[in-house]
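Case study 2.
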Amino acid sequence: MKGHRHLTIVIKLGTSSIVDEKSHEPLLFILTLIVETAVQLRKDGHRVVIVSSGAIGVGLRRMDIQRRPKHLPRVQALAAVGQCRLMSLWDSLFGHLRQPVAQILLTRNDIADRTQYLNAQNTFVELLNMGVIPIVNENDTLAVSEIKFGDNDTLSAITAAMVQADYLFLMTDVDCLYDKNPRTHPAAQAIEVVEDISSLAADVSTAGSSLGTGGMSTKIVAARLATSAGVTTVITRSSNPGNIVNIIAYVQALKQSQQETSSLTPTSAMEDAALSRSTASVDLDGLFMKPPLHTRFLPDLNPIRDRSFWLLHGLAPHGIIYIDEGAHRALADKAGLLPVGVVDVEGQFSQQEAVRIVVVDRLAHLASTSRTTSESQSTVTANDSTPNGSSSAGTYEKVKPATFEVGRALVNYSASEIARIKGLRSTEIQGVLGYADSEYVALRENISLLKPGKSSRPVTLSPAEILA
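Prediction:
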C-alpha cells in the first residue's frame, strides 16, 4: 500500500507453534513461514521483534526426554540446552534470507531495576535501527517463580511496550477469540474487535499445551497490558503467518479510510467509534479486501508509556499504602505523597521498593472501643492530624485493593517507618524517626496513577479474575 508509514511489530510464538507437542520435533514449516513473513515485513520497511517460546520443548528433543520434568533444576537445565539449539535454528533459517538476528533473554529482575530496563530498551532501539530482528525469550535457566513473567504472553506485552510497538501479534492454534469454545460448540461466534476488555464475554477455557505455560486467558491478560500502552493487539492462527501482513494492510487501510472520511464529512464521536469497530471489506489499492479471521484489541487512546508504564507494570509490589481522598486528589494534581495523607500501611517493604496505592474512606465519627470483632475487621482506628498538630481518634473503612487501587509508587521510607509517621506533618518526621530523608513518602516522579476503571494487575491476574 502506497504511502504507508513504517511500523514496529512484535510477533509472539508459543511453544505449540514451534515444536510438536508429542515428538518435540521443531515445526519447520511454521518456522519457515514465520521467517518469510518477518523478512517481508522488514522489506516493507517495518521493524520486527519476535518473542519465541520453545527452549524447554527443544531441549526435551535434544536430550531424548519424553516428558517435561517436574524438578525445577532439571527444567532449567533443559532450557539451557534447548535455548542454544533454538537460537541456532532461528539464525539458520533467517540466514538463508540474509537477515541478521539477535538474542535477548530477560527475567522480571532485569526490568525491575530502572537502569537495566533502560539499558534493555536502548539495546532494542539500536538493534531495530540496525535492521536486526531481536528474538526474545524469558531466561528460564535463571528464572524462578518470584522473578518469572509467568508466561511469554506477558513478556511479549512488556516487550511491545518497551519498544513502543504499533502491533502485537499473539500467535496461537485458533483463528481468534470465540464467545464459546469452538471445539465443543460448532455454532460459536467469532469475536473480531474488542474495545473494552473488561466487558469482554469470551470463552477462555482453552489451556496451553503440555509443554507451554500459557493459554487463551493469558493472551487476554497480555492484551490488557499491551493496549494500555497504546499497542494494537491481535490474536490469530500461527499456522498461517501470512495473516500478519494481510491484517496489518487491512487495519492500516481502515485507518486511512477513516481519516479520509473524517476530512470530507465531519462525524460525531459515535460515528467515529462505529468506524473503528468496522470489520467490513475495504478498498485496498483497488482491491476489495476482507481481513483474515482474527481478534483485534483496540489500543488505549491515552496510553501509559515510559516511566509510568515501568512503575505500573515493570515492578512487583511489596505492600500497600492506604491513603485518604485528599491525598488522592493531591496526587491527581501532580503533587507528591505526604505522610499526612497516609492512613495505613500493609506488608513488609524497604525504601525504594514498589507498593500499591489504595484509597480509603475516612469516617467522621469517633472510634468506638466497644466494636465487635467482626466490625474491627472492616474498620481500623487511625489518628487524624489536626491543624494545630494534635490528633483526634477516628476510623476509616478499607476498600478492596483489587477494586480501588489507584496506582503504584516507589517509596522513600520502609513499611515500619511509614507506619510511624502516617497522618503526621512532614515537619514532624525528624522528631519521630530521628532523621528525615524526604518530606514525601513518595515523590511524584515515582508515582504512577491508573486511569479510572483501569487495573494495574494484568501481569498477575488469575484466569478466574480476567473476565470479572
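The mean pLDDT is 79.
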